[in-house]
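Sequence in, structure out.
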Amino acid sequence: MANSSFEKRIFTTVLWAILPCYFLAIFLLWYIDTSFYLQALVTIFLSAIVGFSFHHFYYDIKDQFISLANLVEALNIGDFSLRGKAEEGQSGHSDLIRQVNKLADSLTTARYDFKESQLLLAKVIKQIKVAIITCDQQGKITMVNPETELLLGLNESKLRHKTLTDVNLGQLSKLSSNSIEKLTFGSRTARWHIFKDGFRDQGKQHSLYIFSDLDLLLSQQEQEAWKNLVRVLSHEINNSLAPIISLASTLDKLTARSDIDLEDKEDIQSGLKIIQDRATSLKHFLAGYRVLTHLPKPKRQSVDIIPVIEQLVSLLNYPVKLTLPEQVIIMVDVAQFEQCLINLLKNADEASGKNSEIDLLIKVKANQVLLYILDNGPGIQNLDNVFVPLFTTKTQGTGIGLSLCKQIIEGHQGQLHLANRVEGGCQVEIILPK
């Protein structure tokens, strides 16, 4: 009895409740003195009613439990669209159906909330400007965000199932969370803030790594500080230069009409001319730095940069050797990109000297374009200050060319690096997203 099904136990209980009454009625029917045919007919009729009632009761109970089982099974496999029909009024069976329907509604709402949260998280991970990597228990990469793809130069499909050692990040497992380390992440060597944590996915332990580029952050803050400084200095100095130029011009005119001795007059006018010329030159010098503080946001569009580079090199007429693929289409502001190349090629030509060839080559990766400019000059003595505004090693330099180039490239979500070559000369590396 204990091992029989629930439906059979209910059926047996009802059977034991009805059968005594049935047998009592049959006994009384046959006990009284009446016709045999009537007794037999009534007995058959009662037996048929009892048998039909038992049959209907058993299969009705069974169908109800099958319906409930189907509802619960649908919930178990994630199909929350099925609903049970509950009878009006209060009963245990109707309440059970209503609760199952409410459970299905709650699970449907939870599924939509979960999907919306996943979509929001995916958007945040896609747009956030930090590198994110997750690994399984074996140390194999399971997920990366677009920023990581950009840094490593590989798509997520190619990074999946690779280990951290395969991408030269094997030392991460030995580092502690919230540490600052100098690492080579793909093609970028910088100081990184590393956050490590663990999480479980489908019952398995995973590792989470988040990398923040501190050098890039400091560079952006430094550029903003220089912009503010140049903006304030330009404003204050221009306010002083304007009246100096005006007064020098006025005094020069007054001196020309005065009765001063000719030799003294020439000396005074010569001095005023020097004051006016130097003030005007200083004003033009400061105007060059205004470019750093008023550089507009790039108007990026899909462009094949190969003909742009070829046309620019032919116009500049520098001795440049081009090693370019047939086509490279990226999103750039053509005017700003040309201005950047003009400054870099001019620097390379001045550093190399006359009749010394400059190499310009492009390499294309999965989601990156790498542009190199190589010269044969003496190299750079102070690499730490090359992007600092006002710093220059040239006698006629202004110290804004490389700062402007860096600002243009970073405005395109790219990177600009300078390094001295082992064989001599300087290497400029521009990394742009494809």
